Every structure is written in structure tokens, then in C-alpha cells.
Amino acid sequence: MSRKGNNTAGILAGLLAGAAAGVILGMLYAPEEGKETRKKIKDKANDLKDQAKNKYGEVSEKVKDQYGNISSTFKETASSVAHTVKDGYDKYKDQIVSKTADLAKDVEAELNDLKK
Residue ranges per domain, the chain? Predict the structure, then answer.
């Protein structure tokens, strides 16, 4: 996601910079008074700033949502793996204890036979 996010952010920044440059150049060459041109440039700059803030907010929310989804999925998977490992451990532990007890009885029986 970071690679795709970097591409998207770069494209967005390039588009905004291009749009800003185009607007400024268009205004500078327009036949108006300097005061009026400066006001239009300021207004357009504020509009672009607001658009950038909105896009940043949207992207930020998407990233937060994705992080939450990934984090939740990871926690669920980790919990599932932990339960599976614990269940397997308990199962094999019981089998080993049982087989060890059987083996101990067999050894005891063999020793008793040897004593006779």
C-alpha cells in the first residue's frame, strides 16, 4: 500500500502544482489591474489550499480505515494461531503423558519379571 500511496500522493501533488502554476500564469497575463490580479491569485491559492486539505483528510481517513482493518485481521489471525498451537500442545502433551505412563508400567513389569 505504501508504494501505491506514494504514487497517488505524487500524482496529486503534481496535479495541484500544475493547476496552481496554470492559474497564476493565466492571471498574470490577464488584462486587469495588479490589485485585482493579486486578489484573484490569493483567492485561488486559498481554494487550492482548501482542496489540498480536503484531499489530505480523505486520504488520511482511508489510511486509518485500512490500518484498522489490517490490525483487526492480524489480531484475529494471531489469536487463532495461538489457540491452534495451544490445542495441539495440549493434545500431544496428553498423548505423551499417557504413553509415558504405559511405558513406565511396561518397564516395571519387565523389572518384576526379572526379579522372579
Answer: 32-112
